[in-house]
Design brief:
single chain, alpha/beta, seven-stranded mixed β-sheet, two-stranded antiparallel ribbon, 48% helix, globular
């Protein structure tokens, strides 16, 4: 009983801290919030166990990297993760700013918008991945996206509230990872709603597919959905620019997936695209997760 009370007190105190940051930062310029997050994580990150995971992942991707390159990209990873964490608290402000997000490759989605088709948009945990779903929503494409629960239920509700404030369409939704997300995705397809997925993280129930030439547990369920419902798969590259503006690049759709290719072969081809994104900005990829084990 005592432990439960102490746990609840800790969760409430954590919430008060995050909520205070949320209320304060919403009054401040977005670039200040980004810089604060960058400095905070850059100072604290190297003293955590996660520091070793970042270096391990970098060496997995770039086995020939010299020490100074590993050090530089480890630092950039902490900076980008810190910026993304704190930018989440002001996500609606970022989406409402006219000059923060540039869209490229609209010609690849014009048909989807004009004909109100549905598709599967795939991205990765790069740059600020939180802008992906609301940006697609604001292009006139209703979408459903999956999010991971935060262990603190009070903070989880706050973050979900912030995410919901960043979208326009009452058809677009965030759904928690698990059985509910599977149902929401299938219901969404029936209601002509597209899907947004981040596909770069390890899936313990997935198939083994080579990622940077390393066998990795990988989700392939979205490929089965694309085959079954004849959906285009559209890769969306997310770039953080030097001035903390963002560029979303919609790449050529992967459509009419040949039945001659297995799901694993299709996924390997998708990974080849993703690998070029990561190599172009390795320090802007979420390296804090143990992706390769």
């Amino acid at each position: 009983m005592k432990n439960n009370i102490l746990l609840r007190i800790r969760l409430i105190l954590e919430y008060i801290v995050i909520y205070s940051f949320y209320k304060l930062f919403y009054l401040l310029p977005i670039n200040f919030v980004s810089s604060f997050g960058s400095i905070t994580f850059k100072l604290i990150g190297p003293f955590t166990k996660t520091q070793k995971i970042i270096k391990k992942n970098l060496l997995q991707i770039f086995p020939l990297f010299e020490k100074n390159h590993i050090k530089e990209n480890t630092k950039k990873s902490w900076e980008n993760t810190g910026k993304t964490f704190f930018e989440l608290l002001v996500l609606p402000k970022i989406l409402n700013s006219k000059d923060k997000i540039t869209i490229e490759g609209k010609d690849h989605i014009n048909e989807i918008v004009s004909k109100k088709e549905k598709a599967i948009f795939i991205g990765i945990h790069q740059s600020n991945w939180e802008i992906l779903l609301p940006s697609i929503d604001r292009l006139g494409i209703p979408v459903v996206g999956i999010y991971r629960h935060i262990n603190n239920p009070f903070i989880d509700k706050l973050i979900l509230k912030i995410r919901k404030k960043s979208i326009f369409s009452n058809q677009s939704i965030y759904t928690p990872k698990g059985k509910k997300s599977a149902k929401d995705i299938l219901d969404g397809i029936k209601n002509n709603i597209s899907i947004v997925l981040l596909i770069d993280q390890k899936d313990s129930a997935g198939e083994i597919v080579d990622f940077f030439n390393y066998p990795s547990k990988t989700q392939t369920g979205f490929i089965k959905i694309a085959r079954k419902h004849n959906l285009k798969i559209i890769p969306v590259q997310n770039i953080r620019n030097k001035n903390d503006t963002f560029t979303l690049k919609f790449h050529k759709p992967i459509e009419n997936i040949s039945n001659e290719l297995s799901d694993k072969e299709v996924m390997r081809n998708i990974y080849k695209i993703i690998e070029t994104w990561i190599k172009s900005q390795p320090g802007h990829w979420l390296l804090q997760h143990n992706r390769f084990s």
